[in-house]
Amino acid sequence: MSETLQWIGTDRAEAEPAWGAVFAMTLGVFGLVTAEFLPASLLTPMAIDLGITEGMAGQAVTATAVVALLTSLLISAATRNVDRRRVLLAFSVLLVGANLIVAFAPSLLQLLVGRVLLGVALGGFWSMSAAIAMRLVPEALVPRALSMIFSGVSAATILAAPIGSYLGDVAGWRSVFLLAAGLAVIALVAQVFTLPRMAPSGLTRLRTLADVLARPGVGLGMLAVMLVFTGHFAFFTYIRPFLETVTGVGIGAVSAILLGFGIANFLGTLLAGPMIERSLRLTLLSMPFLMGVLGVALVSLGNAPMADAVMVSLWGLAFGAVPVAWSTWLTRTVPDQAESAGGLIVAAIQLAIAIGAAAGGVMFDLSGASGVFASAGLVLLLATGIIMLGVRPRPVAALA
User: Fold this and answer.
1) What is the pLDDT of residues 75-113, one digit of tens each?
2) Which of 24, 116, 144, 360 can pair with 234 through a Cys bridge, CB separation 3.0 to 4.6 Å?
3) How far apart are CA 340 and CA 356, in angstroms?
4) Where do the H-state alpha helices sit in the chain?
5) pLDDT, tens digit (0-9, with 9 covering 90-100), for 204-234
6) Could you tell me the pTM of the whole model?
7) Can you tell me the distance from the alpha carbon of 280 to that of 30, in angstroms, rounded to the nearest whole number?
8) Half-sphere exposure of 163 (CA within 13 A, CB side)
């Protein structure tokens, strides 16, 4: 770790990348997202054991999302004088504690306390991830580092639901959260041994968020982020009813298609780094455009199981690159206030999740799953137009 400490604060173009620290952050992301997704696969046994309805148990997910949104906006200002290493380690400690509280929760109240702590860790870690990546590797390697970090999300997306559901049936839902706590401990230990000291950079206050948003191109970029994630989560929230009612497949085929989506999403995340190094602007443009075209095509083809399976996988591949591309965009657009910009992006994504699911529900009631997919496709094509007209990321050379 001593060698890593020597280059923090020096010219990143000549520095050795701290890949061990990047991997430790990937473990942290995997643990956070796994914990976030677990209730989706364990909702029924959790509700039965706690003596509550599934709808009440589902508020555990809502609590995490709301707190993550607020934390993403406030955490940089609240910790502006604290070593970033200590802040990240604190989030990992919170993750361990959150899982333990949920695992031993005797009632809904204690369950929500654990999920609130998870929301703090989730929102804080996410909002700082891009800024920390900028300090761990040279500028030219930031897309690759972000690609590695975000691969933790894709891995959790693939593994959390099926493994959580299986282990919950075999050993009980509380045992699953104990295992999640163990995973968080492993990530914490890895971070203790690899993360260097990182003094806080910039003067981050609440007003900084407004200042960053007012910079040329940032507001339009945040709008594009919201539209891209709104379109995606409208699609993803209602993918099962689409496959069942429009594609006309059973639960076995639905599971196989979703697995294909998850694997393709993981591959897309890994491919994002080389793609962005070649052209960030082309990646920002092409991924939502491809997703938008796929949304319209899925509706147009109707009952075509094989074609639909391929297109859903292509959607997953395209979306895998999206978070990496936008995180790279903020490191190049607002390099001096990457933490504040990261908080804005996380807040925009959390809001987009809520809007996508809510608006998708209204559209689903009006015109079914086909209406949701068509609308999601159009929103993504609108986002592509905004990116084409107003989002022009600066090249690495311009930041040197």
Assistant:
1) 877 887 888 899 999 999 999 999 999 999 998 899 999
2) 360
3) 24
4) 2-7, 19-50, 54-57, 59-78, 84-103, 108-136, 142-171, 173-194, 206-213, 218-237, 239-242, 251-278, 280-301, 305-333, 338-390
5) 555 656 666 667 777 788 889 889 988 988 8
6) 0.73
7) 25
8) 14
